[in-house]
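[Automated response] Your request has been received and processed.

Submitted sequence:
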Amino acid sequence: MILDPLVLRLRMRRIDLLPHQDTRRVQCENYRVRQLSDFAFGPRCARKLASGLFFGILAATIGGGSPSSAADDTGLSGGALVTVARATNACFSDMVRVTGFVVARREAVVSPDSEGSQVTDVLVREGDTVTLNQELARLTPSPGSKSGSVLRAPAAGLVTEVRTAVGAPASPQAGPMFRIAVNGEVELDAEVPSIHLLKLNPGASARISREDGPDLIGRIRLVSPEIDRKTQMGHVRLSLSEDPTLRIGMFARASIDARRSCGVAIPRSAIDHLTVQVINGDVVETRRVRIGLTSDAAVEILEGLKVGEIVVADAGTSLHDGDRVKTIFPDDLDRSRAR
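Generated structure:
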């Protein structure tokens, strides 16, 4: 029988102090002892305390103890009182979080064909929308040519870069003078660790967040087949919904829904080394399960448990197969405490 609480009133004329204390003797009357670690005592006091504990427990056993102590020990009359949870249906997502930069989905570049000319006019600026064959710049005649030339847009789209100015030399060796995002389409080029890259497939949905605007919805358009040997990083391209505030080179984060699954769910705290403790009537049964996806609070059970079955909510309890218990759900426990 467990005393609730174990409080013994002992009358001792003297307590022998331990060697690490001084050798004087003290008087103690009506000392209330709640646990043996409350004070250090010598051999004679220990014998008296043990005697008091024995007769106190014997008296409590014969007298039946208090009603509250009996309930605490047995969880009322049918076994220990344990908190339980019911297996439910829930959906889980395997989220892969990545970072990247906004880039043109397809890019057209414009450069002069020959050496020796100079720029006389620049007709567009970064951010301008251009049409197919629209004039971008005019050049002076190159050596051996009688007339100047004109650089035109090879595709309709958004001018994302202008790398020239009036009076600047025009050379094909200097790199593109204009860059155009074809049809104005942009997307997110994101880096992904190789361990997660194999989970991703074209069409998977994603939520893209940025610091200076609302979240956007996107989808994986392309998963790169190549992984960098040194960094072990791969790339994915995420198509973005149209937004005029998006700019080439803008940094963004994305949460990709790599996999989604719906099934039986229980609290994560109910799992212990791939086993759960199921309550059949009022008897504990330890059962092995196969788990799937997880969330912050729950875990998906693929095999070994059905919706509606009741499990012990805390896998750290010292229950065993065949133990009889009384069950209580967390909501009921909260209501009883509130009362």
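Summary generated for your ticket: Residues 203 and 220 are 5 Å apart (CA to CA). The domain at 80-92+261-338 is CATH 2.40.420.20 (conserved putative lor/sdh protein from methanococcus maripaludis s2 fold).
If you did not submit this request, please reply to this message.
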